[in-house]
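**User:** Once you have settled down, spend some time on the protein underneath, comparing sequence with structure tokens, and judge whether sequence predicts the tokens.
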Amino acid sequence: MLSALTSRRRFADLSEQEVLALAISSEEDDARIYRSYAQRLRDDYPATAAVFDGMATEEDGHRQSLIDLHRHRFGDTIPLIRREHVAGFYARRPVWLQQGLSLVTIRAEAAGMEKDAEAFYLRAAAATTDAGTRRLLGDLAAAEGGHQRAAEGLEAAHLAGTAREEEDLTARRQFILTWVQPGLAGLMDGSVSTLAPIFATAFATQNSWTTFLVGLAASVGAGISMGFTEAAHDDGVLSGRGSPWKRGLASGVMTMLGGLGHALPYLIPDFWTATALAIAVVFVELWAIAWIQNRFMETPFLRAALQVVLGGALVFAAGALIGGG
């Protein structure tokens, strides 16, 4: 690892030919990245896929122009030099290798690619004292700025009218199916189902520490159970709900948090203070569930509040009665 770092060249030590070769390899890499995005998006977001196809074609054209310039100035043999060979050169995070990237993330990464390249060439041009190198780096910066303007033009051509709205709606639907829906189910289960055992223990023992241990066990156990259930019962292929592990993670974590919300107050030694705070947390949790249902699931707020609060109140009453009896 150390030898790999020490063997990297400083950008300031590169010759004009090597800078040109670096630009050529960078353009080639970016074209491949754009094509990988296009391939990934083609089925669900055909308009955005067409944008990335056009951007890849633009990169091919710029690479060919750079090759022609290299052939004119330095001949046909292009030195082998890439981003990872140069210390301080901007790096591309390999996000295109990740599965399940959102449409928003991909668009943002593409915009960042062009901005990073342009900014780097401008900084490099300002730092050099050689007129020829400065001119070359300035040309490369202008080329990257041209890429960005070309991308905006391609986006306007392929995402006109309702195309962007339709794709954004599809992306929102996927986000809700993969993250919000299982997370909401987990939060509801964790917040409501743990009410009875926690408050039954509280009123039966009137001991904060015992109540906390029961709440912790119930919350963690319910989170593990809900997480594995969500991940195992649907692989997402036919339903289109997305990665089972993402859904399982959302469901499991939110279930655990829902239970821990009204278990953590029992870390307070005074039993009645802890109970009063736990009851207040329960009301906050239930109203939060109603808000999420209204915000993402388009359930009328009053209906959601009535369902959640009434259900939670009944479970709480059952736990209190059992514990108090």
